[in-house]
Amino acid sequence: MISRVQCRLLHTTAELLRKTPAEQRWLARQLRDPYVKSARQQNYRCRSAFKLLEIDEKHGILRPGTSVIDCGAAPGAWSQVAVHRVNATASDPKAPVGFVVGVDLLHIPPLDGAVFLPHSDLQEPVVWARIQETLPAGEAQVILSDVAPNASGIRELDQQRLAELCLCVLELAERVLAPGGTLLCKFWDGAHSRLLQNRLAALFEEVKTLKPAASRKESSEIYFLAKRYRKS
After folding, report:
1. pTM for the complete prediction?
2. Are residues 84 and 154 in the same domain?
3. Less CB within 10 Å around the terminal CB: N or C of the chain?
4. Contact, 207 vs 228, CB < 8 A?
5. Of the spans 35-44, 126-135, 189-198, which averages the highest pLDDT?
């Protein structure tokens, strides 16, 4: 008689054999990834939750009562972290209640404590207006951006597209971020990263470059953490 573990192994092997070599490498990497396993065990929607958890543990950007915008929110793992950290569900009756709004071009499954704006393009000013209308008092204390374009496979083109998205997030920040607020933005290290870093330095008192442990070593992704927004 075949055990459940053996059945899962046979199923996984069959899945690998049906996929292309690139898909096989991706699936094999997922099966080995401890963060993927931890995400399943802790009921996070994807492994990226651990990037935000690590950054927040070290830098304390999410506090009860904070209003947060999650850009590129799908599938919602960062929003899960934010909802808990800012007390958006009022699970702690003694702490201030925060607010989380997530935005993405893709569908985002509902999440208790978050308001999602799916099928929304951050490059459209009308979407910025919808975000501002959704926020309590029309402003946020924290903007999170894990947004990324669909990869073309051409490094310079992908970096340029991400730079454009990040600059859109920065324009949104200039519209809705409260004085003293924080922006956390993913970027791909390369020729365009200095431009974004300089723009952030002109608007925030402190800008740090971070590489969380959950970011894969082979990945060029970095995070800019910009704190204490100078509202003009």
Report:
1. 0.85
2. yes
3. N
4. no
5. 126-135
The CATH number that applies at residue 109 is 3.40.50.150
Is the separation of the CB atoms in 70 and 79 below 8 Å? yes
Please tell me which residue in 58, 186, 217, 227 is annotated as part of the active site: 186
Q: How many residues make up the chain in this entry?
A: 232
Domain that holds residue 15: 4-32
What is the tens place of the pLDDT at every residue in 61-96?
999 999 999 999 999 999 999 999 999 999 999 999
DSSP state string for 130-198: HHHHHSGGG-EEEEEE---PPP-S-HHHHHHHHHHHHHHHHHHHHHHEEEEEEEEEEEE-STTHHHHHH
Residue 175 β-bridge partners: none
Q: Among 69, 55, 89, 60, which Cα is nearest to 178's? A: 69
Is 40 inside any structural domain? no
Alpha-carbon distance of 11 to 6, in angstroms, equals: 9
202 membership: H or E segment, kind and range: helix 193-203
Neighbour-count burial of 1, counting CB atoms closer than 10 A to its CB (0-12 exposed, 13-18 middle, 19+ buried)? exposed
Q: Using an 8 Å Cβ cutoff, are 143 and 69 in contact? A: yes
Ramachandran category for residue 90: left, alpha or beta (phi over 0 → left; psi -120 to 50 → alpha): left
User: What is the Cβ-side half-sphere exposure of residue 98, based on CA atoms within 13 angstroms?
Assistant: 27
Q: Are residues 23 and 126 in the same domain?
A: no
94 in catalytic set: no
